């Protein structure tokens, strides 16, 4: 299939891009890597009047490391993160999750901002920003950028807090907690497919082997990425171990509202959540350094 006709513009600066988006509103679509938008255009799921190519905007490509954490410009390519030799030291959960995203050819072009903005509930970045307590920075013409917690960004199936005239600028990941363990697990029919279910897990234990903190981001099991807050509450302050992790995994599965589709039933996806969360917690515990 071929996309419907559209006009094309490639702004050189952030200000120029925001001015165009302000003018065209929901008649415009932003393209970066095009790994999601390209197929949507071809299948005419979306038929924009104008395509706004943001690849020339250097401000969206910046990456900054500091004591506060890691800030990633919206144009950061998945492949560039995969090749970052220091990423595992600064953000180990991101480092282990990146290879699960599609295939290397897709990661070479696909961007963080594009994945988050399209908000596919099975995309890995949804779980990551939830589990990492990330902040998403959003810009619009004539206003100061606004910072939004990841928990408030996703609003439904393929729907986010982004307005048509707004652009995602960067993703801010807090510094990795010292001694915390991590795990990323997902299940798909074939390598590179979207996950039927997945979990991003961050876990900290104290000197008494109790769960000091926990974060569980889930994908593929609702109309948006989820934070399994009830399961996290089960964990905090309790002795870490198999029995507790099984209880938390069952609670996580109960929090989900998966859909039935051609790939899996809702019940099967809940089962996957329970298995994946338990395995992730066990793996994360093995990587913890008690604090």
Number of helices: 12
Number of strands: 14
Termini Cα gap: 56 Å
* Helix proportion range: 25-40%
The strands making up the biggest β-sheet line up spatially as 4-5-10-6-7
> Which regions contain 5 or more consecutive residues with pLDDT less than 50?
none
Number of domains in the coordinates? Answer: 3
Q: Output the helix-strand order.
A: EHEHEEEHHHHHHEEHEEEEEEEHHH
Q: What name is given to the CATH topology of the largest domain?
A: Uridine Diphospho-n-acetylenolpyruvylglucosamine Reductase, domain 3
- Secondary-structure-derived class: alpha+beta
Indicate the radius of gyration in whole angstroms. Answer: 19 Å
Q: What portion of the residues fall into strands of 2 or more residues? A: 15-25%
- Tell me, what is the CATH class of the largest domain? Alpha Beta
Mean pLDDT score, rounded? Answer: 96
Biggest β-sheet description: 5 strands, antiparallel
Overall, the morphology is: globular
The CATH architecture of the largest domain can be given as 2-Layer Sandwich
């Amino acid at each position: 299939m071929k996309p419907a006709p559209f006009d094309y513009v490639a702004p050189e600066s952030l200000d120029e891009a925001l001015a165009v988006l302000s003018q065209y509103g929901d008649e415009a679509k932003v393209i970066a890597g095009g790994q999601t938008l390209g197929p949507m255009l071809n299948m005419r799921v979306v038929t924009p009047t104008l395509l706004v190519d943001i690849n020339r905007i250097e401000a969206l490509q910046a990456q900054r490391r500091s004591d506060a954490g890691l800030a990633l410009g919206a144009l950061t390519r998945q492949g560039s993160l995969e090749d970052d030799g220091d990423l595992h030291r600064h953000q180990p959960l991101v480092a282990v999750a990146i290879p699960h995203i599609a295939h290397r050819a897709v990661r070479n072009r696909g961007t963080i901002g594009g994945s988050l903005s399209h908000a596919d509930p099975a995309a890995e970045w949804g779980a990551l920003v939830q589990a990492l307590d990330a902040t998403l920075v959003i810009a619009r013409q004539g206003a100061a950028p606004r910072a939004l917690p990841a928990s408030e960004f996703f609003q439904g199936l393929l729907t986010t807090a982004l307005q048509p005239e707004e652009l995602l600028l960067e993703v801010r990941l807090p510094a990795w907690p010292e001694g915390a363990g991590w795990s990323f697990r997902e299940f798909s029919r074939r390598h590179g497919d979207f996950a039927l279910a997945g979990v991003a897990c961050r876990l900290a234990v104290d000197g008494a082997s109790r769960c000091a903190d926990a974060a569980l981001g889930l994908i593929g099991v609702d109309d948006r990425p989820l934070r399994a807050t009830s399961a996290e509450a089960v964990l905090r302050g309790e002795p870490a171990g198999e029995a507790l992790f099984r209880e938390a995994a069952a609670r996580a599965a109960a929090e989900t509202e998966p859909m039935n589709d051609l790939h899996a039933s809702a019940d099967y996806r809940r089962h996957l959540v329970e298995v994946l969360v338990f395995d992730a917690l066990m793996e994360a515990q093995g990587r913890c350094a008690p604090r």
